[in-house]
Predict the structure.
Amino acid sequence: MQVNRNHATQPNDTQPENALASLAHERAILESALDCIITIDSHGAVVEFNPAAERTFGYRREDVLGKEMAQFIVPPALREQHRAGLARYLTTGEGTLIRRRVEVTAMRSDGSEFPIELTITPATANGETLFVAYLRDITERKHAEVEHLRLHEFERAARTEAEDRERQLRAVFDAMTDGVAMYSEDGRIISINPALRRMIGADSHPQYEAMPLSRRTAWLELSDSTGRPLRMEQWPPARVLNGEALVGERAADIIAHTLDGRDIEFSVTGAPVRDSAGHVIGAVCVYHDIAARRLIERQTLAALRALMRCADVVTAHTTSETTMDLLSRLAAALLDLEAADFTHALLIDSDGRPQPAGIHGVTPEDEAIWRRGLAQFDPANAPHLDKVAAILATGKPLLQLFDADSPLISTVTVASLHVRAAITGPVLVDGAIVGLLTISRTRPLEPGSATFFAPWDVDLIADVGRLAGQAIAQARLGEQLNSAEAGRLAAEEAARQRDEFLSIASHELKTPVTSLKLNLQLAQRRLGGLRSTGDQQSLETLLGTLLPRTNDQVDRLTRLIDDLLDVSRIATDKLALRLEPCDLTEIVNLVVREQRQHNPTRDISLATPTETVRLCADPDRIGQVVTNYLTNALKYSPEEAPVEVRVTRDDATARVDVRDFGPGIFATEHDRIWERFYRAPDIDVQAGSGIGLGLGLYICKSIIERHGGRVGVESARGEGSRFWFTVPLLGTDAQSGCAGDPDAP
Ligand code: ADP
């Protein structure tokens, strides 16, 4: 398309000077305009292209004049749109770009595209429609705008992030279980989290937070861990504001008497907040409630103490202590545990029934409830008993929470004593449950603690139960060993007594037999001599001395043999009694008379009651007992010491006492001297010749007991002895049955 270059500038004024002036004016505007001014005709051909346009698009005016503008300044992609728009305007008079400020993309001579701001104004010159476009490179502005937007976006994102952070921090601050407070330079609280507010009881005193430090010290009492009150400058925030960092080892342990009157222990850490120049402008302190730590310390100590006591109890357990006592003492030791409000032990008998061994930490009334509850315990009312037994049989303790859970087994005690939780540990011996140890908790949870028991309490009960089981098993083994040992010792003792008896018996029998033999030999020799001399007188003298001596020896032998026979009769239950009504005084009188005859030098006194002492007895056997007591008294006491015999009676019983002033007998021997063959080791025969076989008292005891009486000795070493026996008096109604010996065949 060819466009007349001068066409658009052709003056149409009739006044040439005016027209020239106007033209020059127009030219000047075009030349100096900062914006690009491009005029095209209705064919789209360039009729004006000012210097700004030349600079912006990189074309020279003369190169573009008359050519279609779209070909060099409209980017190829937009050219058809541009042409269609032009054509539409020319036919309809409407155009989307006309007389509006729009932003579109243009293209430079080097093909680069860039944003422009554009206004198109149609004009008519010489009847032809022209379009004047004012346009401006807005690359810079666009850049600035984008940058602005970016900055704006950045700032918004930063702000959102900061807000999120703050919200997060706030949430953390609020959710922290530790108390946190921030302080201004002058010690005022700038911020305090709910935990700290709760800890110090500030919820009930909202004005507290606004107070300066100097006034707060009058409200809240702080002291060190030993209870010494802290002065204001010793308060943790004051120390931190003073530049001190309370961290690690330097954390301050303090006790606070709170605004609502509690005492709590804190560990306080804190750090100063400094400005860029390093000046302290505030402080942050974290308050950690150490009740839980203290609780754990207390629990640990208590557990150690309980364990030591249990170990003492277990190691001291011997065969002489019953299992019941052991269990009870262990339960008492477990009371040392921090969590234990009371403890109890049950013995499980061989039928599986629980027996009370001991309860500790309760009142006598509560103990009575416990014992009653156990006595009335009915397995039928414990549906989970099998399950419980199965758990305990594995050696594992059972932990039950009666507050929350539905416990496996609950008892009268649990309900009546308000037990909240309990641990029951089994004591097993050879796989069988022989005992149960239980620690019960009635107090509510400690503040800051989530469980009723320390984590190791269950293990501790298990261990103590196991130790107890071992101790019981060991004691049982010891008992078996002991009884085996006792059996062995008894057999040894029996063998020793037998040997001793044989040696004494042979000696005892030999003595009279030897002297009998000597007497007989002597008699034989003398008789031989006398026969030859025929000395009748000497013969009689000889017989007069030898015969009584021989008779004594025979008597002594007879006594020994009688004793042995009696013992064998007693052993075979064949000691025959010839019961008949008789008088005890008479019997004793006779014996005393005999003994006075045999021992004419001895002082034997006799005291008898005035009334008769009638018995239903075998008078020979009773006489044998009295003889034995009396000969012992004479035998074991010195020649010159008197012996006293006394007969007494009351309404139903007769009693004989034989008192001597001999060596006396140790109390430890009092029972044993009545045993067969027993002879007190350190008592020597003091008078007479017989020493005895240790059978006399045994026979006496048997005879008296066969008469329904009792025997005894009162004696102390160095004070002589009193041997006594009692027998029932002859009752009137019993008289008829006393005709003969009921035991007689
Ligand atoms: P024995 O034949 O040895 O006397 P007994 O059975 O009569 O036997 O007595 C048993 C033991 O009791 C005696 O060996 C002696 O040690 C002690 N005994 C008995 N009577 C007396 C007494 N009157 N004084 C001291 N000890 C006595």
Residues 628, 632-633, 636, 660, 662-663, 665, 673, 679-680, 683, 692-698, 721 surround adenosine-5'-diphosphate (CB under 6 Å). The longest strand covers residues 113-125.
